Amino acid sequence: MTKLTYYTATTLDGFIADPDDSLAWLLRQPLDEKGALNYDDFIAGVGAIVMGSTTYEWVLRHDPEGWAYAMPTWVMTTRDLPEPPTQGTDVRFASGDVADVHAQMVAAAGGKDLWVVGGGELAGQFADAGLLDEVIVSIAPVTLGAGRQILPRRLDLELLEVFRNGAFVAARYKCVGPLAEDRTA
After folding, report:
1. Could you tell me the sign of the dihedral formed by the alpha carbons of 155, 158, 161, 164, in that order?
2. What is the pTM of this model?
């Protein structure tokens, strides 16, 4: 069964980027690239991805290869954005209901899983729609005090596993849904 995972990194105080959308705090942390919950193992099982426009623009600015993703990619945006510079990419711009995009992603993924690349608000929209299955997070030994929140929602998560990977605590959670006290009868 295809699942949707929000695979990300965060600071100890819950931010995925600083107020200027910088990831400098993340990129200087020691990490075992073959360690627990690593990117290569994760991405091997992914058939389609989705990201918000801020994440998309960050990737375009910081990816020296031009576009690193071989699978179909949805970018949620209400703005006109440039296509990636790399030929043969499958980038689709969308807006509106994430449930519609989710259905398109499942169809395109060929039985593989789906990844919410970022950001936290977009992952929250999938959680609101009951479509977010997992959160895999690497927690860095850094605090920022402000920035982009990892997941600006009130959610119950169930811890499935936890590991150390370099400087990070790497954890995988099942997304249970809204906090128990917020659920309607």
Report:
1. positive
2. 0.94
